Amino acid sequence: MHVTNTTDPTPRHRFVGAGLFPSRWRSILVGMPLMIGVSACGGTEARPEGEGSTSIEAPWTYTYQQSGGFAGINRRLTVSSDGKAAYDPGRVGQPQTTTLPADAPKALATRIERADLFHQKDAYRCKGCADQFMYTVTLKSGSRERTVAWEDQSDAPPALLELGSASEQLIQQYLVAPAQ
Question: Can you give the pLDDT of all 180 residues of the chain as single tens digits?
C-alpha cells in the first residue's frame, strides 16, 4: 500500500522504517549509543596510568573534609608536610592548630601514597542513599593537585577508606581538646 503526498510525487511506504524494527527495538537501538556516549563522558572515571604518580613531593598540603549527614556536619583537617595541622570542627567547636610530631606527617604521607589519589575516580557515590556523610580529600603536591570524594556505603577502595580513618585518628589524637 502506498500513500501519495501531494507535495512530493514520490510514492512512499506508509511505515517508512517502522517495518524494519518494531518500536521497542527502535528505542533500544537509538538509546544505546546515547547511553554509551553519556557514560563515556561521566567525569568520574579513574585516571589512566601515567597521568600521575603515587609518590608525593614536599612541600605538600593535605585536606580532609567530612560533610553532610543528618546533622549537617562540616569538619575540615589540613596537614602540611612541615607538620603544621589545623582542624575546624564547624559549628560544634573552636578551630584548633598544632604542630604534629615529626613521624605523623610521614605516616600520613605513606597513607596518601598508598591511597594512590592521582589514579582514583573523582567521586565514589552511594546510589539511592540519603543523609550520608561525604568525605573529600585534596592533595596539593608540587605543581599537582588532586581531589577525591566518597560517600558512606559507596564502593570507595579500602586504601581510600584507610586514609579517611588515619585522618580521623590524627584529629582525635592531636587536635580535639581533651574532655574536661
Answer: 455 555 545 444 444 444 444 444 334 434 443 333 333 333 344 444 434 456 888 999 999 999 998 888 899 999 999 999 999 999 888 999 999 999 999 999 999 999 999 999 999 999 888 889 999 999 999 899 999 999 999 999 999 999 999 999 999 999 985 544
Same domain, yes or no: 36 and 102 = no
Is residue 46 one of the residues assigned to a domain? no
Residue 14 shares a structural domain with residue 92: no
CA distance 169 to 180: 20
pTM metric for this prediction = 0.69
Q: C-alpha cell of 56? A: 608525593
Q: Are residues 106 and 34 in the same domain?
A: no
Verify that 76 and 27 share a domain, yes or no. Answer: no
Distance CA 67, CA 75 (A): 6
